Write a sequence for this structure.
């Protein structure tokens, strides 16, 4: 009798397995994560007499079967002693289990495994792996994967400890590493892809035996893990009871390890097409004989006869060989080298997959005429399934819809990562499919929609603005802003262009109505709503006294006002305006006051000039820019005040200090030390919040400038605007400079939003979050950046294109994908599947007129929550897109307010990691900067872990910063892996 078992990874899984075997039945493992239709087929094909499961899973399975719920008291009434096997007439040739593998006919096939093969496997692996009663083995494999029985049986037969962990704790990477360490695992079997995800510098002192199986083992893994432990490369198909050969790896090996030699009572033959043994070193098909050869395929007599053939080399009656379809050759030392498959079956992440099964399912999808599925490795180590499709005439196939249809029938590991549409398939001269000629799976960079002319004056205007912003020749009324390449920074420009034409639109409408015709309707709906009016500044250049009634944006007493005026050179005559700080300014000031030495938010750059004349021209242009913009002439006052304020001076000359080096050698290093922000502090009450130190370097014959810029008065976009204006001034094009706009308008609009609006939002988002998200255990968010290291990694062009393709297809910004990928990294490194991290928002989307060209600190850091558990990649992306869109309405909420709305109690932080996604202009050749070169630039934060993504319009650059003890390269590579996996999962 066959007994179906469907349980979550738990002791119940082992209890059910042992109960079925001891009773004389053959268990049939069912993975509860499989699609319902696949589970139903396996139940129908296996025809079990009973189903063992858990209460939470029973509804998904065939209710007509007698069912035992392993997690209910009724199970306790079962027999509490072992059945008498002799009385039951059980022999080693009775079935132990039936396990299903991928089938080329479109349905999985059940492999029937007898007790004799299982017993031989257990004895062989216990000896080879050196398992003792003191061993601790990790149960890693899926219950429906044949390695699972190997892990369970070898452990229990030796009286060792079997460690069961949750799916989340076994995720390749930090989660798996943490499980191996905390559970003191001594033995583990992993597919190479999971071992590759373990940090190369990971400390696993308890791990005595590492077994790699399921797919080819790269030599890099041997070098990394073979020293100091037994590392075994194992090989064997399900049809031969899990394992047929083993090889003890040597860290000194330069090549990929062979699959070794046969285990006990197993014979390996390498035969040619005529079934004859091949000479030493000649490739042939691997055939396996001996105790491990299984009975065959359940209900598939023809296929069994095809793959299980009589053994001509054995004297035992009825002996058979299994034709593996794998190619190999004998090496001089008696080991076998694995050379791949001789058919189209593939192995991916340890799972054996018949592309034919996927092809059959694809041809059942609506609109598909013909399908071919292959495994491609366009980048080393990055193997994925790619489906090539011929649509039916007049049908446009959508990859996301195809993947969704397949997911109802196939396991996740069988879903193609890309879908390529072809009019015809390439053929060889003899008329067969030419698989090598199938094209690269890259898709069109821009999603196509049916074109229709804009209708009416507003749609026409909107289309013109889109064309200008996006650099397109034509935009139709059904086109999608984000599919065409729009992003949040461009949204600011869109709002500003519309405002200039007399139309109003808020940022949320851009994200909620990204299709042109729908956006036009949203614009019309906004008309008639009262626009926010900024109170005018009553202070004039003729004012001789300042009184509280002249300050509409802040409440100060006369005493406080007099205190402020006393800090300004020139007194009242030099005061242009006074108003409160923006939320992030308050946070930066808090950290400034907390530090006694240095200043985390003082940005320092070192620039070399080929002459003093060129240096002076640059400094003169900088002073002109300072003179033009209020925020660059702003000081910060807080001492003796009930609240900190910013004070705009009318004149704020930049002080240039000449540094005299101790010697003529290493002048650059001396200047760096002298201006190091880790030791230097700036008097924030004195404007401008710039520092300028110059020195002459006789070695290079250059003038050096150490330019400091405090984050309190500007962000990344402000720096770009400053550089753009300096460039125009150096080119003699001052007349092209745009009108300067005051920062006070932004402050006024920020203050106009009641705190209760923000509180309601963040309580809804965060009230049930009662533990911080702490990747790598990092919790200190009061750092000074002293021990932070940084790494820059550009993404390759292929990956960047794939990210943009997916974003356009989903109608979202690439930033959403990076937020999800960063959440996955934090989930892996914190052991949580519900994570919170800080996202740096542009801060200009709710701004008033000219928000895209006002200088000042607009950015703000706010918490973003991403829940990963129980969701598909697409669901997580859509939820994150929604959360980011709604968060934008609160982009200037104080971080302290958001943290108070969570359940995390002070002084614990809500999060300790940041993501800063910023749109940047790639460096272009420009003669303006001839004779100048940037030597050093440094930016720091108080957070211990930060990832910045620079979006250059086509390419992306990652900048990872991490405190001592955390390798930023490792962090950046985690993100690269996550974003790659995400784009494939969405394909």
């Amino acid at each position: 009798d066959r007994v179906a078992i469907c349980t979550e990874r738990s002791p119940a899984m082992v209890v059910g397995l042992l109960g079925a075997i001891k009773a004389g039945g053959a268990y049939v493992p069912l993975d509860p994560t499989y699609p319902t239709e696949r589970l139903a087929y396996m139940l129908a094909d296996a025809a079990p007499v009973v189903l063992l499961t858990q209460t939470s899973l029973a509804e998904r399975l065939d209710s007509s079967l007698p069912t035992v719920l392993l997690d209910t008291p009724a199970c306790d009434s079962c027999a509490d002693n072992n059945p008498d096997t002799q009385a039951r007439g059980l022999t080693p040739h009775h079935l132990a289990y039936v396990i299903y593998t991928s089938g080329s006919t479109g349905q999985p096939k059940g492999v029937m495994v007898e007790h004799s093969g299982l017993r031989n496997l257990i004895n062989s692996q216990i000896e080879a792996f050196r398992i003792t009663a003191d061993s601790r083995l990790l149960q890693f494999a899926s219950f429906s994967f044949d390695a699972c029985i190997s892990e369970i049986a070898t452990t229990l037969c030796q009286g060792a400890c079997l460690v069961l962990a949750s799916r989340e704790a076994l995720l390749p990477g930090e989660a798996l590493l943490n499980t191996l360490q905390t559970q003191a695992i001594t033995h583990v079997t992993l597919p190479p892809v999971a071992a590759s995800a373990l940090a190369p510098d990971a400390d696993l002192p308890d791990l005595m035996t590492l077994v790699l199986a399921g797919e080819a083992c790269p030599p890099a893994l041997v070098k990394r893990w073979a020293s100091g432990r037994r590392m075994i490369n194992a090989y064997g198909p399900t049809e031969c009871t899990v394992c047929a050969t083993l090889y003890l790896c040597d860290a000194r090996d330069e090549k990929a390890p062979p699959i070794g030699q046969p285990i006990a009572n197993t014979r390996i033959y390498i035969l040619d097409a005529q079934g004859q043994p091949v000479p030493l070193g000649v490739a042939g098909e691997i055939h396996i004989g001996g105790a491990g050869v299984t009975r065959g395929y359940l209900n598939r007599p023809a296929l069994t006869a095809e793959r299980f053939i009589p053994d001509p080399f054995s004297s035992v009656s009825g002996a058979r060989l299994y034709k593996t379809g794998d190619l190999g050759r004998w090496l001089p030392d008696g080991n076998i080298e694995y050379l791949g498959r001789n058919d189209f079956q593939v192995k991916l992440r340890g799972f054996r997959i018949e592309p034919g099964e996927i092809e059959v399912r694809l041809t059942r999808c609506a609109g598909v005429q013909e399908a071919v599925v292959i495994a491609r490795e366009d980048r080393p180590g990055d193997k994925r399934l790619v489906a090539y499709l011929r649509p039916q005439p007049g049908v446009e196939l959508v990859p996301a819809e195809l993947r969704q249809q397949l997911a109802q029938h196939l396991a996740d590991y069988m879903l193609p990562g890309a879908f390529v549409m072809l009019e015809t398939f390439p053929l060889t001269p003899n008329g067969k499919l030419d698989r090598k000629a199938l094209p690269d799976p890259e898709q069109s960079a821009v999603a196509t929609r049916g074109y229709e002319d804009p209708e009416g004056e507003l749609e026409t205007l909107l289309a013109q603005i889109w064309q200008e912003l996006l650099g397109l020749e034509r935009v139709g009324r059904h086109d999608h802003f984000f599919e065409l390449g729009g992003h949040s920074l461009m949204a600011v420009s869109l709002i500003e262009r519309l405002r200039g034409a007399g139309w109003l639109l808020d940022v949320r409408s851009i994200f909620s109505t990204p299709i042109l015709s729908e956006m036009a309707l949203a614009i019309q709906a906004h008309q008639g709503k009262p626009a926010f009016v900024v109170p005018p500044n009553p202070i004039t250049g003729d004012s001789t006294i300042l009184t509280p009634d002249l300050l509409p944006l802040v409440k100060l007493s006369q005493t406080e006002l007099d205190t402020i005026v006393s800090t300004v050179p020139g007194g009242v005559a030099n005061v242009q305006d006074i108003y409160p700080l923006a939320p992030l300014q308050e946070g930066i000031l808090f950290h400034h006051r907390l530090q006694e030495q240095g200043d985390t938010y003082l940005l320092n750059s070192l620039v070399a000039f080929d002459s003093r004349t060129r240096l002076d021209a640059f400094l003169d242009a900088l002073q002109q820019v300072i003179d033009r913009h209020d925020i660059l002439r702003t000081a910060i006052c807080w001492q003796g005040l009930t609240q900190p304020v910013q004070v705009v001076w009318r004149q704020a000359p930049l002080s240039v200090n000449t540094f005299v080096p101790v010697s003529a050698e290493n002048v650059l290093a001396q200047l760096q030390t002298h201006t190091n922000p880790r030791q230097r502090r700036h008097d924030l009450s004195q404007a401008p919040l710039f520092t300028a130190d110059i020195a002459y370097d006789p070695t290079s014959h250059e003038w050096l400038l150490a330019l400091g810029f405090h984050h309190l008065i500007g962000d990344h976009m402000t720096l770009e605007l400053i550089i753009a204006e300096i460039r125009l001034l150096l080119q003699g094009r001052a007349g092209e400079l745009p009108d300067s706009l005051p920062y006070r308008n932004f402050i006024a609009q920020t203050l106009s939003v009641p705190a209760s609006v923000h509180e309601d939002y963040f309580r809804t988002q965060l009230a049930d979050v009662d533990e911080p998200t702490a990747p790598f255990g990092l919790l200190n968010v009061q750092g000074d950046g002293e021990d932070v290291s940084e790494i820059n990694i550009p993404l390759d062009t292929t990956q960047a294109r794939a990210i943009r393709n997916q974003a356009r297809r989903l109608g979202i910004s690439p930033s959403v994908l990076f937020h999800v990928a960063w959440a996955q990294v934090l989930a892996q490194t914190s052991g949580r599947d519900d994570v919170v991290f800080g996202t740096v928002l542009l801060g200009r989307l709710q701004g008033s007129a000219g928000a895209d060209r006002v200088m000042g600190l607009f950015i703000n850091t706010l918490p973003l929550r991403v829940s990963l558990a129980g969701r598909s990649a697409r669901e997580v992306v859509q939820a994150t897109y929604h959360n980011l869109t709604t968060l934008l309405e609160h982009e200037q909420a104080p971080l302290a307010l958001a943290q108070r709305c969570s359940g995390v109690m002070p002084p614990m932080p809500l999060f300790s990691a940041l993501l800063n996604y910023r749109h940047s202009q790639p460096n272009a050749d420009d003669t303006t900067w001839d004779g100048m070169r940037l030597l050093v630039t440094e930016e720091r934060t108080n957070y211990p872990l930060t990832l910045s993504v620079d979006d250059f319009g086509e390419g992306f650059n990652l900048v990872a910063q991490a405190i001592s003890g955390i390798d930023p390269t490792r962090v950046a590579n985690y993100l690269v892996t996550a974003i790659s996996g995400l784009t494939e999962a969405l394909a």
The first helix runs from residue 11 to 22. The chain has 27 helices and 38 strands.
